[in-house]
């Protein structure tokens, strides 16, 4: 007769969440946003294919070169936020500088887009001037809206961090949203500007 | 007497499928395809591929990430529990025997 002795009462391991709720909610939101952009790009590709020349005759060409510089600023802000995340895990207060850099680069991106839009409106590219204008303002405009909201979220996060009240969940959720804004941009740039 | 309506419905379905299969140009001649030229058809094709792939990859990645995170956390929790059991056992012996559950297997005949 064999006998096994188990400690009693045996404690069951407590369930732990796989990630903070803010992060999971943000990830689900990002997946739905990806579908929105997939729909935009699909519709744009089909409409563009029906034209022999693009942009349509009489419509200005988009400033691809200048926007490339702006794109580098956006990518740079993504890199800065990555380093901010690493610093936050070590010591939250040490994330202040890279987070501020990410915020400033993001704000520069949004500001530059505003300047670019003013110039294009002056050249006659409006929402109703052609399919070119309609898709440009719809796709790039919705991205600019997301970037603006992300800059606001980063600002909020930065001020919470300065006061020492930024939680890890809130930081990670902001990081996920900003990465989405940064990562979707190269696809939009290649499809719309080039 | 055979029922006519189901037969007609099945026949129409078979002829419809055969028609699309044998004469694909008819299926392409939809009013949404603008001109039906090669560039346009290619745009429709890649647009459809993208619209199918993006949700599949995005949701698949999200689920895979959740699964692997849950697995890693479970493994970590099991290790923690084993470690705390191992540290509790010598204390139980030294304190003169804390309550233990004796599992006695049935005698084999």
What keywords describe this structure?
heterodimer, A: 194 residues, mainly alpha, Four Helix Bundle (Hemerythrin (Met), subunit A), 5 helices, 3% strand, B: 109 residues
In short:
Chain A has about 190 residues and is mainly alpha-helical.
Description:
- The complex is a heterodimer of chains A (194) and B (109).
- The mean pLDDT of chain A is 88.
- Chain A is built from five helices and one strand.
- Chain A is 73% helix and 3% strand.
- Chain A has one domain: Four Helix Bundle (Hemerythrin (Met), subunit A) (Up-down Bundle), CATH 1.20.120.
- Chain B has 109 residues and is mainly alpha-helical.
- Chain B has a domain at 35-82.
- The interface between A and B is large, with 33 and 41 residues.
Question: Which helices and strands occur, and which strands form pairs?
Answer:
The complex is a heterodimer of chains A (194) and B (109).
Chain A: E1 3-7, H1 21-49, H2 64-90, H3 96-122, H4 131-162, H5 168-193
Helix pairs in contact in A: 1-4, 1-5, 2-3, 2-5, 3-4, 4-5
Chain B: H1 4-22, H2 24-28, H3 38-94, E1 100-104
Mean pLDDT of chain A: 88
Q: Quick one: overall form of chain B?
A: elongated
Give the CATH topology of chain A: Four Helix Bundle (Hemerythrin (Met), subunit A)
Approximately how much beta-strand content do the residues of chain A carry?
Answer: under 5%
**CATH C-level name of chain A:** Mainly Alpha
Average of per-residue pLDDT values of chain B: 75
Q: SSE string of chain B, helix = H, strand = E?
A: HHHE
Structural class of chain B: mainly alpha
- Specify the biggest β-sheet of chain B: none
Total helical segments of chain A: 5
Q: What's the end-to-end separation of chain B, in Å? A: 70 Å
Runs of chain A in which pLDDT lies below 50 for 5 or more consecutive residues are none
Low-confidence stretches of chain B: none
- What value does the Rg of chain B take, in angstroms? 33 Å
Number-wise, the strands of chain B total 1
